[in-house]
Amino acid sequence: MLDILMIEDEPNIAEAVRFILTREGWQVGLHPDGLGGIEAIRSEKPRLVILDVMLPHRSGTEILAELRGDHDPGLAATPVLMLTARGQASLSLPQADAVLAKPFANDELRAMVRRMLN
Amino acid sequence: MKQHGSRILTGTRIRERRLALSRRQADVARAAGISAAYLNLIEHNHRPVGDHLVLRLAAALDVSAAELAEGREEALIAALREAAVRLPDDAAPEVDQAPELLARFPGWAGAVIALARRADALERQLVTLSDRMTQDPYLLTTLHEVLSAVTSVRSTASILAEGGEIPPDWRARFHANLDADSLRLSSTAQALVAYLDSFDTQGAIFTPQEEVETWLAAGAPPVEGAGDLASDAARAMARVHLRQMEEDRAALPDDVLAAAAADPDPLRMAARLRVPLDLVMRRLAVLKPAGFESAGLLVCDGSGALTLRRPAPGFPLPRPGDACPLWPLFQALASPQTAIATLVEAPSGRRFRTLSLATRDQPLGAGGPVLTRAQMLILPDEAGSPARPDLLIGPACRICPRADCVARREPSILATA
Fold first, then answer.
1. What pTM, to 2 d.p., does this model score?
2. What CATH number should be reported for the domain holding residue A103?
3. Which residues pair with B345 in a beta bridge?
4. Are B180 and B233 found together in one domain?
5. pLDDT grade, residue B183 (50/70/90)?
6. In total, how many domains does chain B have?
7. Which of B188, B221, B331, B337 has its CA 20 to 30 A from that of B416?
8. pLDDT computed for residue B3 by the predictor
């Protein structure tokens, strides 16, 4: 079972984040598109989802809303960390457990993920 | 009213000129062939001055008649009053003294008008730039691109700088990523600068709907070769408009409409001609027959999105994608097939008679979706109706100065008045 599933369309960001978090000892999976994002969460059942807001084909907020409405209460309650390019102040994401604004410091990412997984 | 305002100014100017020459009222009056008492009334703007008398007074005062009764006065007074209307509530200029100000201190009056016009121009530029910054899809996409590249560079560079064990293949990959992202940043930044430079071009068109509206304003020339229609989307939209206009014209020919337009009420026009009201409204906005020369038309779909904007002079219109929620156009959506006549007032103080109507259609039959469309015919209230306006409207919240509007959904970027 994955610790973290990251849904992010920017491959270089995804690679960097995966490396940072893998080095911390977590198992990280990647999904590159909004399309199929909810299916990836359902099949992988990760402990944490890192979800970009602006994704091709399907936005992160749509995926989050569908996840929260899932008939499996355990899956619906999966902690979600949203990555946003818009900044936390201008975007209201009440269904997310945490929001991280791009660009972020690696320490900030590690601390947030550690807090959410523990 | 116009005549009166003009003559008031002329009287004041006659007095100013006489005093400047240090001449007595009686002398000037005698030279002009009138009594001193009558000249006194003229100078204090209590009597009108006919054209012949202006000529005689001008000769007596050794000045040209044009200088005493200049034709541009009314426009200048209107400009002064308009400048006063736009001031904040706590500023209370003596609007009724605008003619006096112009006559006695033409230099200062000119300065006020010039400043007001400059403020208007800057406001328009601010709105244009603000629209671009917040709604321009190219700009949003480009900035997102920049942010993504910066995020990648920052995370990757930190990985390399933090030290620790990095397998050689990963290290090589990160270096390659840094190289690619820095290249991406460089080219995107150049494109962004070039794009921002283009902001200097006033009134640039950048959405297909704006292209179509410009094309319509130019008289809807043939789509092929129309310079205003730069995009495929705009050309496709223009063809749809052309088809609709041709169908409308066949259903209500120019000569029939022009004859019917003697009646200022579009509802009565539609009833007498036995045609739908929405057709009459569209045709009035296109043909603009006598009595409807300044007609404008707004059309929206069931979601409230504006699909066509034919501007009426002075009616405050924002960029596509934005609107004032108080426009009667949107009220019509809630009560289809019922015409709503509303007298509205813009922030500039100008009033407009509006007629709004929503229609419903099921083009795919009874089982298909119901499509709602609303139209609002806009006519300047040139008669100056004494009634209070039914509604105080604006262009759109972001560029509307009505600070205490109950329908406000976001703060204005303009100074509130």
1. 0.48
2. 3.40.50.2300
3. B351, B392
4. no
5. confident
6. 3
7. B331
8. 38
